[in-house]
Automatic annotation (TrEMBL):
<dbReference type="InterPro" id="IPR014029">
    <property type="entry name" value="NADH_UbQ_OxRdtase_49kDa_CS"/>
</dbReference>
<keyword id="KW-0813">Transport</keyword>
<dbReference type="GO" id="GO:0050136">
    <property type="term" value="F:NADH dehydrogenase (quinone) (non-electrogenic) activity"/>
</dbReference>
<keyword id="KW-1003">Cell membrane</keyword>
<feature type="domain" description="NADH-quinone oxidoreductase subunit D">
    <location>
        <begin position="148"/>
        <end position="322"/>
    </location>
</feature>
<comment type="function">
    <text>NDH-1 shuttles electrons from NADH, via FMN and iron-sulfur (Fe-S) centers, to quinones in the respiratory chain. The immediate electron acceptor for the enzyme in this species is believed to be a menaquinone. Couples the redox reaction to proton translocation (for every two electrons transferred, four hydrogen ions are translocated across the cytoplasmic membrane), and thus conserves the redox energy in a proton gradient.</text>
</comment>
<keyword id="KW-0874">Quinone</keyword>
<feature type="transmembrane region" description="Helical">
    <location>
        <begin position="368"/>
        <end position="392"/>
    </location>
</feature>
<dbReference type="InterPro" id="IPR001135">
    <property type="entry name" value="NADH_Q_OxRdtase_suD"/>
</dbReference>
<keyword id="KW-1133">Transmembrane helix</keyword>
<protein>
    <recommendedName>
        <fullName>NADH-quinone oxidoreductase subunit D</fullName>
        <ecNumber>7.1.1.-</ecNumber>
    </recommendedName>
</protein>
<dbReference type="InterPro" id="IPR029014">
    <property type="entry name" value="NiFe-Hase_large"/>
</dbReference>
<keyword id="KW-0812">Transmembrane</keyword>
<feature type="domain" description="NADH-quinone oxidoreductase subunit D">
    <location>
        <begin position="323"/>
        <end position="397"/>
    </location>
</feature>
<dbReference type="GO" id="GO:0005886">
    <property type="term" value="C:plasma membrane"/>
</dbReference>
<keyword id="KW-1278">Translocase</keyword>
<dbReference type="GO" id="GO:0048038">
    <property type="term" value="F:quinone binding"/>
</dbReference>
Amino acid sequence: MSTERVVGVGAGAAGFDPAFERGGAGSDLPTTDMVLNIGPQHPATHGVLRLRLTLDGERIVGCEPIIGYMHRGAEKLFEVRDYRQIIVLANRHDWLSAFANELGVVHAVERMMGLEVPVRAVWLRTLLAELNRVLNHLMFLGSYPLELGAITPVFYAFRERETIQAVMEELSGGRMHYMFNRVGGLKEDLPYGWLGRTAAASAAVRKRLPDIEDIILGNEIFRARTVGVGKLAPELIAQYGISGPIARASGVDADLRRDEPYLAYGELQDVLRVVTRPEGDCFARFSVLLEQVKVSLDLVDACLDKLSSLPAGPVNVRLPKILKVPEGQTYAWTESPLGINGYYLVSRGDKTPWRLKLRSASFNNISVLPALLPGTMIPDMIAILGSMFFVVGDIDK
């Protein structure tokens, strides 16, 4: 954390008049603003994100998010790798949502090729996408209270994560980067007895979830730090293209799984609930995330029931050794755990894409900070930043 002092006369750096705020005689008085750098290496920033804050005392009058410290140029790397290799890169930009990241790429390629994925693979993908959503949300449910000084919840959250990770690792061999999607389906079928073990894991997490709910939502200190803090208006949601749990916590009733169903979500509309809150503050964002875990577990159980009734069959489509996508373009998007991920694919008929543009949810979630933070105090900034649910790799893709 570093500081530099900026001296000005009259209004502050963001059009804010500190002299007027302190009850001074007017803008002819000299004022001193402090510029505080939070990050790029700082516990509050979840990684190498830098926030350049302009302060009047402890009040924020301006915020400039500075990104790019871990930029990996994934979109350019996509252009020199074939469609199988792209999946390896794509599942890493949001390292908490690897399976969801893979889905967008394979959806775009399958749409361009006109491939019909086997029914069994469709339901398996839906199941794994929801298990991945639970893993993502549990990480934030544990880490967010940690930002506010509560250490215990992260241990509860990681206990539940390990329960789900066990079945995901058994299936794919990976704990974070599953590499289980393939163009045309999935890598392989399920291990014997895996559906039963997954059902047991889902039941265990559901049974213990109230522990997290009670220890956090019932805590008066947590409520004092989050209720009414960082209110995000629906107008800002629309202006900045924010999606996912953050948008729904501000009353925006939007979810691609319901509004433009893909995978097997069209057959799960009676199970899928879109969780919204009207308040738009830090507490609402956290409570939406917690409630969405319950919805995802409901979807997991429904998928398990369906898969148990399906006959044995293929989980992928046989493809040529060298995979080439017909010339053309398409746009595929998915409701990833942090919001909408979009994939714009342009092909010239080669084995590598001519262009694959990635629209990530975290980038939009962070872009609203200059409009959200001015007027707040530094301690509230930490609470707000933690409730914006982003992964830095998803910003610096």
